[in-house]
Design brief:
Blueprint lengths: L4 E3 L6 H4 L4 E3 L15 E5 L5 E7 L4 E5 L9 H17 L9 E6 L8 E6 L2 E6 L2 H5 L1 H9 L8 E4 L16 E4 L6 E4 L2 E4 L15 H10 L4 E5 L5 H8 L4 E6 L2 H14 L6 E5 L2 H7 L7 E4 L11 H18 L4 E7 L6 H15 L3 E7 L18 E7 L1
Parallel strand pairs: 1-3, 8-9, 13-14, 13-16, 14-15, 16-17
Antiparallel strand pairs: 2-5, 3-4, 4-5, 6-7, 7-8, 9-10, 11-12, 17-19, 18-19
Amino acid sequence: MDYPLITLKRGKEASLQRFHPWVFSGAIASDCTHIDEGDIVAVQTSEHDLIGYGHYQIGSIAVRMLTFDDTPVDEHFYALRLTEAYRMRQALGLQRDDNNTFRLVHGEGDFLPGLVVDIYGHTAVVQAHSPGMHFARDIIAQALTNLPDGIVRNVYYKSETTLPYKAHLDPVNDYIIGKYDTDIATENGLRFRVDWLRGQKTGFFVDQRDNRTLLEHYAPGRRVLNMFCYTGGFSVYALRGNARLVHSVDSSEKAVTLTNDNVELNFPDTDRHQAFAEDAFKFLEQIQPEDYDLIILDPPAFAKHKTALRNALVGYRKLNARAFEKIAHGGILFTFSCSQAVDKEQFRLAVFSAAAQARRRVRILHQLTQPADHPINIYHPEGEYLKGLVLYVE
């Protein structure tokens, strides 16, 4: 294929020969001024040996590799990669009568860097995180509707907030194929309204499915506080797990409304749930010790970039310290970080420091991560972004 050519500096091909999918701008020897953002480029060594093809963009990560051979990046390429991704989800048993919600494509984890696809019933919500995937959106949408079993009928494109703003792409959130069908999706037999039109990410945090199931196991008879509740996923699972009471907290009135809707959808007229639109730190400050014996801390990313790492770790320490101070004796704390810039050891140290600050005896029951439909490319360990701990607090 006649793609623009990028030549690497001598010795800079080593990581690519280990199949790491990123080419950093500092590794490039050739002039790239003639290459447009989103172009497919051929990457070669300083000795002019082809490494593979990828999407070019301006920035620190200059190329996201799609192939490590001479396979052309065309309609067949996308159809094959998407079909392989779907076959893996089938093998995981995620497409069932009681579950039609899962991640179909997880960027580098599915060898499609820059692309995220979540499935809600028969609707695929597509997010592009690179200009190259933005320009390929129509090809991707068509390939999605051609997947086996007719799983996808509608494709909604939602990339207004995920593409590099300096690229000036002006994406519009809208249906590429199909139309609005229903906003109710099913996860492990529970129903949720998913707002992919205006909600965060693709509308629902699919990555906490397995961790919500674990929470249900610990819920019976407990008084549960779900901080940063968003759609109320943990709250609904806790209610099904026969929690004595469940309180959901989020600073967003819209999130609280959505949580109440999802509780009503699954447990109409229950008197065990109440939601509050309040700041998390203020709410934790106001409650009394022993009010709750199961607390969930699942905040939004405190650090999206390494530059914010220090402040993020301070934030995690303060938040967890407050929870340790307030949770009842013998309580269970589910605490998470979804900040890719924070690795699991840094997060664990922040939580350890919080426990020491609160002077509580704490034991780790579980160390949690993202589910199998958010796979980690073995050559791209950076893909492990979700960290969680389940703690027993004396």
